Amino acid sequence: MPTADEIDAPPAIRSRLRKLGIERPDDLVLHLPLRYEDETRVTPIAEAPVGWPVQVEAVVLDVALRQAPRRQLVARVSDAGGEGSTLFLRFLSFYGSQKSGLEAARDAGRRLRIFGEIRDGFLGREMVHPRYRFLSDDENGGESDVDALPPSLTPVYPSTAGLAQGTLRRLIARALRAADLAELLADGWREQHALPSLPAAVAFLHSPPPAVDESALQARAHPAWRRIKFDELLAQQLALRRLSLARRRQGAPVLAVAGELARRLQAALPFALTGAQRRVAAEIATDLEQAHPMQRLLQGDVGCGKTIVAALAACQAIEAGYQTAFMAPTEILAEQHYSKLRAWLEPLGIEVSWLAGSLGGKARQAKRQQVATSAQLVVGTHALIQESIDFARLGLAIVDEQHRFGVVQRLELRRKGVNPHQLMMSATPIPRTLAMSYYADLDVSVIDELPPGRSPVKTRLFSDTRRAEVIAAVRAVVAGGRQAYWVCPLVEESAKLELQAALDTWAALTAELSDLRVGLVHGRLKGDEKASVMAAFVAGEIDVLVATTVIEVGVDVANASLMVIEHAERFGLSQLHQLRGRVGRGAEESVCVLLYQQPLSRTARARLKIIFEHTDGFEIARQDLRLRGPGEFIGSRQSGVPLLRYADLESDADLVELAQQMAVQWLRNDPERVGRHLRRWFGQREELLRA
Ligand code: ADP
Ligand code: MG
């Protein structure tokens, strides 16, 4: 016997439901239609529009098997004698029983109720693969109950293979009858915001009356939809905020120090911190002195100088006698951080260690030993958390380019049983509504100022028919003593093809620029090979670095002043922005050339226009959100939060704000209500949000 919290259905059905995220009757109740079909009325064939789903009733005139162009079953039906009242039903795949059924209906003059879309076909007006059923005995012109037209629109639910709409509808209707949809919002407040009650909204969306404004339903702008979206956003806010409150109750080492190491580091720098850097560094320093773990996101555009801020935080942890882990998403980037941080910190007597997946067995063993004991700062890729590495006294974990890591990795760190302060850094600015929604449990610091003396990067768009001009520009740059990046085409479908494209590009450029030193770096190189190519580029021994997107994040070579991106139309906006940020790091004017191939798709054209017109990462992210929608922007893998199913962060921004206010109130005053709402929306799945 299923318990009240289980769905009463065979195991095979239950497992298919699980694929849709449906575990409990409550999940069925909140599984809302994608769209509706209007089976509430019957349209005369002669009046039925083309290209629109309609329901008709007709008798079968004849049934035939045709062979050309392929085997198909064709039935001609009609609902009146007159002009335009016949219709062909065409089935490209069918059972033999379908043919005999239709023939029997023809012989008996039995009526069919047919639902589908009419189009103008080869034979005349036709429906391809319509849904149909035989009406019960029609002899007396009367209709029996089973043939009564439904009083409301027929919902079409998101489904999965092997789960028929009929089954879903039945299960959902049953769950609705048993559901406890007790209203949790105050009536006055609801009315003030024009939100219907929950039972009303749910009932309405599962079976709207035929007279409803279909466009508002479809656009999910109907008040019933807004109510559901509000509840969904509220559940998300509650879960995230409760999590953040729980985090505040956990203990973390208090890293209160005199600040000697940080002072010495700053004194040794060849530059002064910008005002923004000083401000965020102070915010972080204060967090580290608290007895609960910091969870701070440090946001700042490419090149704004986040690394030094992180190094200052590391100094604080180290001075307090704790270790710091510094993680980067790629080995190249980790390597760069390693050499930079060593240069900064070793003169202060700090022991800096390196750990990456490519380290061989023996070396790794030794590193592990060092991490377990003496290392004060450990730099590496996520090998740092993936492996069974036991930090002796981990006080601070820094995660660079946070958007590249999944929340899963954040989780792993927590599961290690350590509870360090966490500083996450990202150059991909997160638009406000997204931040409010997905990062409700993070504090955010923003560096909104670039170091002085940077010249903005000029962006130029070139069709690839003008490649020769670009080659000439590369020559000119190198002749002036500068260096260039040449980014290879992205081949999303296949890493192998992408590698081939990189090798081809490199071969072509080596031939075209035979008097220059052309290097190549790509993702398939071993760690030390990559490192040595990068080192040669940093040292100026390579003029032109041909690269795949391994250089996308964080690479820092100030003498490089030209960036060429081949097939720029294939890249995403944030990728283009990150890549462009690799130049313009010195005082001299830098250029980013976007080579594209015609014809451009509409969105590719829109992307190139945005990147051409904007240099501000924040604005680019906002436009990106507009272009792609938040789901793709953040990616469920990255957010770790199940994507909002119904609410849209851009168009429902007002609801996000309302939900946030309500969540704060409930958490303060009404924990019991919080629990009920979260159980309704997530059941046991709230675990998913624990990241
Ligand atoms: P990002 O925020 O993109 O990670 P980095 O930390 O790599 O940026 O900094 C970019 C470059 O700017 C580095 O070479 C860094 O040493 C330099 N830098 C950082 N802060 C300043 C500053 N206040 N003045 C001058 N240069 C700075
Ligand atoms: Mg960086």
Automatic annotation (TrEMBL):
SMART domains: DEXDc (SM00487), HELICc (SM00490)
Database matches in CDD domains: DEXHc_RecG (cd17992), RecG_wedge_OBF (cd04488)
Keyword Magnesium: no
Family annotation (SUPFAM superfamilies): Nucleic acid-binding proteins, P-loop containing nucleoside triphosphate hydrolases
One annotated GO molecular function: 3'-5' DNA helicase activity
Annotated InterPro entries: ATP-dep_DNA_helicase_RecG, DEAD/DEAH_box_helicase_dom, Helicase_ATP-bd, Helicase_C-like, NA-bd_OB-fold, P-loop_NTPase, RecG/Mfd, RecG_dom3_C
Domain Helicase ATP-binding residues, every copy: 287-447
Reaction catalysis annotation: ATP + H2O = ADP + phosphate + H(+); Couples ATP hydrolysis with the unwinding of duplex DNA by translocating in the 3'-5' direction
EC class: isomerase
Coiled coil regions in record: none
Record PROSITE patterns: HELICASE_ATP_BIND_1, HELICASE_CTER
Keywords, sorted A to Z: ATP-binding, DNA damage, DNA recombination, DNA repair, DNA-binding, Helicase, Hydrolase, Isomerase, Nucleotide-binding
Domain Helicase C-terminal: 480-626
Example of a GO biological process term: DNA repair
Keyword Hydrolase appears in the UniProt entry: yes
Enzyme Commission identifier(s): 5.6.2.4
Family: Belongs to the helicase family. RecG subfamily.
Function: Plays a critical role in recombination and DNA repair. Helps process Holliday junction intermediates to mature products by catalyzing branch migration. Has replication fork regression activity, unwinds stalled or blocked replication forks to make a HJ that can be resolved. Has a DNA unwinding activity characteristic of a DNA helicase with 3'-5' polarity.
Record's protein name: ATP-dependent DNA helicase RecG
Source species of the chain: Accumulibacter regalis
